[in-house]
Structures are given as structure tokens and as C-alpha cells.
């Protein structure tokens, strides 16, 4: 029996909802748009038009992949974050709403500064740095990541969101001391790998089997990157500059201690929208 775009969307939503899929409304819309090549606006406009059998089959195949665990973002190749549409792939983490708290705090600080340089370390697809650039036009942003594939996505997202000339991708290893040629920054913002190695096997299949371990594994206690960055990247900040970290559940106190031991002060933390202590920030004190 022939169905319309509206009927195909509703059928897809029912299938996802009955299988327990989270955000079935959003996922259904994204999968139908991806299979049909339509924008969200075009899908709404053409809601009463009939679809082909071939399109129905394509949508059902995408639904099958998603219900097997593959995240919608990887299936469609893009995701929205802080009002930006960003290309993603299995080489980077999918941007999450929790990370908007990191952007909020970084932007709040940068709006008190003169034109400044910002480093988004462990940038992935560049979501944090690009969101900061979208909110602070005076900022010059460097997206730093060790992965060639991540940096290619950063370049694509810089271009597609019209930040060329103000945001640049640079290969760098957060676990090693920075090359002095990158200069100094007023701000470092960072969402590093922070899952304890032994906890990865217990993650949801959509994360464990699809998202890159390189971007998840924070070492035995999940704190390896915080130790390395606080110890090795302090000199990349101007004295008085500020660092912003996203942290995992119950990590805020430990990360604050690591920062204090490495010459940072004025340590603060704040919750995300779920009441989880999500961001830790500190100031680089001048050398004595």
C-alpha cells in the first residue's frame, strides 16, 4: 500500500519507539531526510506526497542499522551542536548536549576579554571551538587533535560554517608538550577522553562498538589526559589565562586537585543541565 512522506515518518517513529530508541521523533526525521535527500523543511513541505517503494526500503535499512546500535549521527554523517551543523564520522565522538555547558562557560569568560586566541584541545570534529567562534567573533581559534581523520573533519566544518581565516586546525598530541611555535593562548578549552579503561566494556553498544576508543579511553582511572594537559600545556597559557575542562561523573574534585598541583588556582566547577558536575575551570598563576 502506497504511503506518503508523513506516513513514512510516522511508521519510522513507531518502529524506533517500540524498540526503545531514545529521541525517536528526532531520529525518525533524520533517517527519512537522509534516505530521501530532503531537508527538514522539504520533508514538511512534501508531507502529503507519495513515496516510492525504493525509498521505503532505504529507510527500513537505515532503521535496521540504527536498531543494531549504529548512532544516527554516523548513519547520516552530520549532527547539530550549538546551532551549527557539523560533519561527523566514526573517527570522532558525536557532539552531545552535555558539552554545551563547556561552551557556555568558555564563552562567558571570553566575552570579558579583548580579542584573544583560544585553543580547543582534543577537538574531534571541532564542535567546541567552532561553537565558541560562533559566539565570540573577536576570538581566533585553533582546533588541536592528534587524529588526521579528525582534522579533516575540522577543516570541512570550518569551511561549511564560514569560519575560514578565523579558525584553523593543527595536529597536536595532548599527552606531549606543545610545540612552542603554536604561541600562547588566553584560553584552553578541552573535552578530553575521560572514561576509565576498565569501564569501556560496560558502555552502551552505540558508544562501545561505534565511537572511537581513542576519544574515550582516559587511562586506568580516566584522568591521564587531565594530568598531561595540566602539567605539559600550562606554559601554552598566558599567565592569568584560563583553562576549561569537561569532566566525567565524580571526576571534578580529582581534576581540581590535579590543576592545583600544577600551578593553577581559582578553581571552580559547575553542573550541566542534568545536575552533574560537568565543567572544571582554573587560572594559570604566574611563575614565582
Walk me through this protein's architecture.
The protein is α/β, with parallel strands linked by helices. The protein has two domains: 5-68; 82-284, 3-Layer(aba) Sandwich (Rossmann fold). 38% of the residues lie in helices and 19% in strands. The chain is built from eleven helices and nine strands. The chain has helices at residues 5-18, 24-36, 40-45, 53-67, 72-76, 100-110, 127-135, 148-160, 205-208, 224-232, 252-261, and strands spanning 78-81, 84-87, 117-121, 140-145, 167-171, 185-190, 237-246, 264-271, 277-284. The strands form two sheets. A seven-stranded mixed sheet has the order 5-4-3-6-7-9-8, with helices on both faces. It has a two-stranded antiparallel sheet with strand order 1-2. α7 (127-135) links the parallel β3 (117-121) and β4. α1 runs parallel beside α4 (53-67) and α2 (24-36) packs across α4 (53-67). The longest helix is centred in the first third of the chain and has 15 residues, at 53-67.
Number of helices: 11
- What string, H for helix and E for strand, traces the elements in order? HHHHHEEHEHEHEEHHEHEE
Could you report the average pLDDT, rounded to the nearest whole number? Answer: 95
CATH class of the largest domain reads Alpha Beta
CATH architecture label of the largest domain: 3-Layer(aba) Sandwich
Radius of gyration: 21 Å
- The fraction of residues in strands falls at 15-25%
- The domain tally reads 2
